[in-house]
Amino acid sequence: MSEFSLSCAVVAGTSRGAPFGSALFFVLGGVLHIGTSLWSLPIAACIGGVISTYLVFLLARPREDGRASIVMLLLTGLAVNALFMSAIGFLSYIARDPQARSITFWSLGTLSGASRKAVEIVAVSTIAGTIIALRYAKQLNALMIGEEEATYLGVNVNRLKWIILSVNVVIVAVATAFTGVISFVGLVVPHILRMIGGADNRYLIVGSALTGATLLTLADLIARLCVRPAELPIGIVTSAVGVPVFIFLLRRRRYVF
What we know:
12 helices; 2 domains
């Protein structure tokens, strides 16, 4: 969407804004005596994800042509992520013990809190978002060759960007509300599939979803078995595996991002 294939929810700020929204809801909910429900966390996470993502694209947008450059997008995304991480740390510091444990849950990432209702909510948002993304797969393919070229081919670039960005925010925020921040799965998996089967979004979107879900299940199995009877946060496992793969992708000269 930004003509830069390393863009992901971390760069866009969504993966840190979403848990901030949930953490803020927990802290304010305890102070204001607001009752929690299964839907309150996804809603709070979506609000946080929208705010953080909007901040990244607003601050990264240059004054001349209204487009965000790759460097500005990366630097702004890192800065906004750091801002929300510090905010989450502050909320964890002032929170009570049960609230602090809930906030730590999002910062480490785990599937231990999965329930049938939570799975249903995440499944609905993910499947609906995937269907919408597939509907625009051909336009995304056109956008990969450049915004001007896509415009010549009849693509409404601005409309496409906002639709896909909105879909991304909802999917990531809802998933993050229940699982926390699980790093590198959404960054590494699409690039491995690109190297194997090409960059056609008609197949890449579904392939990334299925492959990512499979690898996440394997990572959860490792997290549950390697330190039994305790459970290792799944974010530690995905980061330990994802970082070397990410470095390999960066150093692979024949692979162009």
